[in-house]
Each structure stands twice: as C-alpha cells, then as structure tokens.
Amino acid sequence: MLGGTGWLGEAVVRTAIERGHDVTCVARRSSAPDGAAVLVADRDLDDALRPLTDSRWDVVVDVATQPGHVRRAVRDLERIADRYVYVSSCSAYSSLSVPGIDEGAPVHPPLVEDVMTTWEDYGSAKSACERAVQEGFGDGRSVIVRPGLIGGPGDASGRTSYWPLRLARPSTPAGEVLVPDAPELPTSIIDVRDLAAWIVRLAERSSGGVFNAVGDPVPLSVHLATAAEIAGHRGALTPADEHWLISQGVSQWAGPQSLPLWVADDTVLGIGALSNALARAHGLALRPLAETLRDTLEWAQREGVPTATRAGLSDEDERRLLAALPG
Question: Residue 212: which of 321, 90, 315 has the closest Cα?
C-alpha cells in the first residue's frame, strides 16, 4: 500500500488485513493500522521505493496525486508486482457537466510535469497518474478507480458531516436551517468503508479495468430529508435562491462559508450523478445513505467535531444569511 496512513488508505489497509492479507504500508510516517508492516519513505526522492525491489508483490495499491510519485513507482515495481490498483478521481474527466458520465468519457490531457503545483491541475495530474499505470502495467494488470465524493465516519472535509450536524444543531431557536433552492440537484456519496472493501476485492481479482466508484444519485432534497430524519430535526428547511447565495459569498460544494454538496456551476452539474453501473456489475456494494449519515453523525458527535469545519456555514454566518434572506 503506497500510503495507508490517510483516511481512505487506512480503511483499505484495515479491510485487507481483516480479509487475511499481509500488508506493507509505504508512507512518510511510521504509524499504520495494527497488523501492517511499515516502510518509512519520502516518495519525492527518486530511490524511495528501492527497499521494496528485493521482494515480489501480488498487488500495489496507490492513492497518490503527484504524477512523479506514480511514474517512479511504476518504473520500480512493474517487474516485481503482479498488478497495480490506482485510486484516481472523477476529476480526471475533462467535463462533469452532464449526468450519467461513464468510464468511456474523455479525460483531461495528462500533466507533463512530475509535480502538481496548483489545484487547478488536479484533474490533469490524476489523468497523468492513470496513464503511467496503464502504460506500465497494461490494461490487464492495471485497475483504475475513479471515486466521486467519499463520505462517512472520519470525513475531515466536513462535506458529509455538515448537514447531519447542522440539522442536529440548528443555529436559530426555532430550528430554521438554510438550504439551497435546488431540490432536484443530484448528489451522491460513496461510504469510505464500501469503497475500501471494493478496492480490496478488485485487488484480489486477476483482471484490470477502469471504474467509477460513486454512490447512487439522489436529489438534494432527499439527502436533506434523510439527514433531517437521522438528526431528529423538526424545524423549517428554508430555501435560498442560488444566485442570491452566490452574491452573498456562499461557496459551492466545500470550503469555508459553503453549503456542501450544492453546485450551481453548469460545468460540474454532473458530479453527483456519474454512472456506477460498471462498478455495480463488478461487485460494488453500497450501504443505504441513511446508514452512512447516521454513522457520520454519531462519529462527529462522539469526536466533538464542529458543525462547520473545512466546509459549511458557521452559526453566525447562517443566522446572518437567514436574516438577510429576501421576502
């Protein structure tokens, strides 16, 4: 496991160990899930993976973003590893403007440089990593996994914890909660535990492929209603016009002063409705959205996670917006 100390990486390692596999984590720090061996290495260095080349490996699982990390890993491990599973992103697609995008859609031109220096190049960096794996290991020995929004317990981004927490902790005495007026906007979340389990199953197979790893799409109104039921919320969900929200400085999708999951930008309206048909046909199993949101809320409350972290509106911001809402 190239990585294995981050959120998804840890989930993959734990799942693999539970299924009886021997796992070695290659990471910058020495901590790793119980039962995993650790090789401390800095993948910025050209010879970082040299200690691995004296062994034979069944599968490499890689979650890297920097093309240089992946190019060097492919160079060093292709002759001693049977298969390579690379966790990419739906951001590799050159367009996310329409629903139903499948694995045959065009991707961004690969980033030429080894180092991504700006998040504007994230999609191109992931595309470059994919190409390095496919060219080095071939179609039959490479697996490319393109997740959408990953959620569930442990989500430090706040994108899946905000709505259950906000609905459990309204900022106003009456329990009023501000929501985007976009009830039919498609949204999807893949639970980190389901994604990790499926990645391990893909690693156990003998064939390759490219797969979208996304949850089933549901309208934003259904997501919010599910979160409200989980949270025991009884107040009003007050819709705000999308153009007005933007004019007030509210961010889309994630980040400070945002409303998570909401997108009004025409160029990314399909991000919540990618096709998961191929992944489903190859064994992807998804738990109900209610279970993911319930477990996320319980985790967040247990760990004392604030309502607004790296995503969401603070209580003060929400009250200000509710007070300023036209009409």
Answer: 90
How far, in Å, CA of 96 to CA of 70, rounded?
25
pLDDT at 136 > cutoff 90: yes
Q: What is the pTM of this model?
A: 0.96
pLDDT at position 4 is 72
> Which tokens sit at 40?
């401390």
Q: How far is CA 294 from CA 8, 112, 151, 219, 300, in A?
A: 19, 43, 12, 18, 10
Contact 142, 86 (CB under 8 A): yes
Report d(CA 23, CA 57) in Å as an integer. Answer: 10
Is the CB of residue 107 less than 8 Å from the CB of residue 80? no
Positions of E strands within 269-314: 311-312
205-244 residue pLDDT tens: 988 999 999 999 999 999 999 999 999 999 999 999 999 9
Give SS3 for 64.
Answer: coil
Name the burial class of residue 209, with classes exposed (0-12), middle (13-18) and buried (19+) by CB atoms within 10 angstroms of its CB. middle
Q: Which amino acid type is present at position 147?
A: P
Tell me how far apart the alpha carbons of residues 187 and 221 are, in angstroms, rounded to a whole number: 9
Look at residues 183, 181, 94 and name the one whose alpha carbon lies nearest to residue 146.
Answer: 94
pLDDT in tens, 14-70: 999 999 999 999 998 888 899 999 999 999 999 999 999 999 999 999 999 999 999
Q: In the block, which residue shows the tokens 């693999």?
A: 16
Q: How far apart are CA 206 and CA 208, in angstroms?
A: 7
Average pLDDT, the chain: 96
Q: Which helix (H) or strand (E) holds 40?
A: strand 37-40
Phi-psi region of 138 (alpha: psi -120 to 50; beta: other; left: phi over 0): left
How many beta carbons lie within 10 A of that of residue 149, not counting itself? Answer: 22
Q: How far apart are CA 129 and CA 136, in angstroms?
A: 11
Buried b / exposed e along 264-297 (16+ C-beta atoms within 10 A): beeebbbbbbbbbeebeeeebebeebeebbbbbb
